[in-house]
Write a structure and sequence with these properties.
The chain is built from 13 helices and 21 strands. By secondary structure, the chain is α/β, with parallel strands linked by helices. It has a 9-stranded mixed sheet. The protein has a 6-stranded mixed sheet with strand order 17-15-18-20-19-21. A two-stranded antiparallel ribbon has the order 1-16. Strand 10, helix 7 and strand 11 form a beta-alpha-beta unit. The radius of gyration is 26 Å and the shape is elongated. The chain starts with a strand and ends with a strand.
Length: 514
């Protein structure tokens, strides 16, 4: 759970007014004054200085990651950008982008960045994912790569959605974070009497367990969800003598670790090893520090039981979607929305680019959120445990609702879409279905939900919204606007009373988008 209110206090202490940012380390991705900027000098970040780049024909994994990374960045800011995610062809000059984040390596321009930016893309196994920093003369940025689609999804979530933590989230004061690692390196060398110029977290290599050929019964027992296999650092020194002294100190620490000594120095449960490049000028000496001991593991297996679908559930219509009746929660019951109960579920095939803006729209109205928000339909093992899910496009869950007869979509013309609430979809909770006659209709519908909903057109105070139509209909039915309308209200009421329950529900909750 990430709390916006907690971060704002931290931002007030750390932020600096700035119109440009240079992200010089993986420790600075969502750091105030680096990845996040305070443009008006009030001590609170109001702009994310990040651009997320996806291929021109991104797959569902790339879109899911881009959506969650953008939502996480927007969640940290007071003002939001729905244009943070871009296809590579939409960018006229990649070299002018602030802190680009490349999802995948299928970009021609990236070869130049790799060559000039000192970035060495590793050979990755199907279970491995990697995040690396590059820095050319005019730009710095990040690359997310992996040996398989599954590893790309897991690595992207592990880094961007766990940031600033290595792996386990224990709190910024006690937990292992990238910034703490930089401070620990500085503290270690200071204790050795060695000054340094700067420390840069350069790369993170993840390794995840391979469950593809494991029997389903054994998948429920997992002693490892993965870890950082290797974390790369660059440590720069003021002169060559300091470099030589540091080489000796790191070697001494490595030997001490091999004997089980000095265990509190530069050894972290969530990280298999540190690979430290000690640098002065063109001289580089590498030191490798394997983790002391093994990561903490449970002594008894953890069974992945299906969530229970009981309880009150989430019964909402479109007017209640962006409330605690719908996608949000109030964990401490203080009247302030502080959780996202919903998940946006996308199909495993097809393009749903508009989901990137929708994820950011969801975090706009809450003081707290848990990530990921966007999930692939193949990841949902227990539909009965879903609360207020948002089902995008022709995914397997939408198809299941159609098979059960709970969802009947209307005939749609090309470029049209529909938004419909399905009561008691998989349990006692309603689900929101977003469908289109074709990809263009689906994208237009997602754009409406992201940018205008619950308003009819432009988003903003004083503009006409869905609630106004509902209230106008209530006044009409009560005959408050004159005798003629009172007559029609009586006839309309007779018509409504004659509808079947399901038809009445559809009348209340459906929204057709041309």
């Amino acid at each position: 759970m990430v709390k916006r209110v907690l971060f704002l206090g931290l931002f007030a202490l750390l932020s600096e007014a700035s119109s440009a940012a240079d992200m010089g380390s993986l420790s600075q991705v969502f750091m105030p004054g680096k990845g996040l900027l305070d443009t008006d000098g009030d001590g609170l970040p109001d702009r994310a200085a990040l651009t997320i780049i996806v291929p021109d024909n991104p797959g569902p994994v790339e879109l899911a990651l881009a959506a969650d990374i953008a939502a996480r960045a927007n969640f940290e800011c007071l003002a939001q950008s729905f244009a943070m995610v871009k296809r590579v062809s939409e960018v006229a000059d990649l070299e002018r982008l602030e802190n680009p984040i490349f999802i995948g390596t299928n970009f021609r321009w990236l070869k130049t960045a790799v060559k000039e930016g000192g970035l060495a893309l590793p050979d990755l196994a199907p279970t491995q994912g990697w995040v690396g920093l590059f820095a050319t003369k005019i730009q710095s940025g990040l690359v997310l790569a992996a040996g398989s689609e599954d590893a790309l999804l897991q690595a992207g979530r592990a880094f961007f959605l766990r940031w600033p933590y290595f792996w386990d989230i224990w709190g910024r004061e006690e937990g292992a974070t990238f910034e703490r690692l930089e401070k620990d390196v500085a503290g270690f060398l200071d204790g050795e009497g060695i000054p340094l110029r700067r420390t840069i977290v350069r790369s993170v290599l993840y390794d995840f367990p391979d469950f593809k050929n494991v029997p389903r019964a054994l998948k429920k027992i997992s002693f490892s969800a993965g870890e950082i296999h290797e974390l790369g650092l660059d440590v720069h020194f003021i002169d060559e003598d300091d470099l030589r002294s540091a080489v000796r100190s790191f070697e001494s620490l490595r030997l001490a670790h091999s004997r089980g000594q000095r265990s509190d120095i530069l050894s972290y449960a969530g990280c298999g090893r540190l690979t430290v490049d000690l640098k002065f000028g063109r001289t580089t000496v590498r030191s490798v520090l394997p983790r002391l001991g093994r990561p903490k593991r449970m002594m008894t297996p953890s069974f992945k039981d299906a969530p229970r679908g009981g309880g009150a559930g989430k019964d909402f219509d479109l007017l209640g979607l962006l409330t605690t009746k719908g996608v949000y929660g109030d964990l401490d019951r203080d009247g302030i929305v502080d959780a996202v109960d919903s998940r946006i579920i996308i199909p495993r095939t097809g393009l749903v680019r508009g989901v990137t803006a929708l994820a950011s729209k969801i975090v706009l109205h809450t003081a707290g959120a848990s990530f990921p928000i966007v999930t692939l339909d193949r990841e949902v093992e227990f539909p009965k445990g879903l609360l207020a899910p948002i089902l995008i496009g022709p995914n397997s869950l939408t198809q299941e609702l159609q098979r059960l007869g709970k969802l009947v979509l209307p005939p749609l013309e090309n470029a049209f879409g529909v938004v419909r609430v399905v009561p008691r979809a998989f349990n006692k909770s309603s689900a929101l279905v977003v469908a289109g006659a074709d990809p263009a209709g689906l994208e237009k519908t997602l754009t409406y939900l992201s940018r205008n909903f619950p308003y009819f057109e432009g988003y903003g105070d004083g503009r006409l919204q869905l609630r106004d139509a509902s209230e106008a209909l209530e006044r009409f039915l009560k005959g408050e606007n004159g005798a003629a309308e009172a007559y029609f209200a009586v006839e309309f009421r007779k018509l409504v009373d004659g509808l079947k329950d399901r038809d009445l529900e559809n009348l209340k909750v459906e929204c057709l988008i041309p």
